[in-house]
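Why does residue order matter? Because the sequence determines the fold. Keep that principle in mind as you read this record.
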Amino acid sequence: MAFTFKREMTITHDDFMRILPRAIGSHEFAVNDQKIFFSNKFYSMQIHVSDEQQWGIGSLNLPRLLVEISLEHCSEAEANAAMRQFDRSYQKGGG
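Structure:
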């Protein structure tokens, strides 16, 4: 089956790419323009990353990416597990 997930992320493109290996569990992926391709024995993943935008809140400007993740050749449980790892990898702590 195929599953698509969308995320609006407050992160720079450089930081997104720096964290990506941890998010997908591998340093082996292909990049073609704004698309990232990765596959393992459980699924194939395609990630489309928008151009970096600025999101203004008053005088504060934050980087913003729109990210669309497509997972194919997997069960719903495998897709949800992959997205839990992806989301957890990009979480920022606060306090």
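The beta strands are 2-9, 30-32, 35-39, 44-49, 53-57, 60-72.
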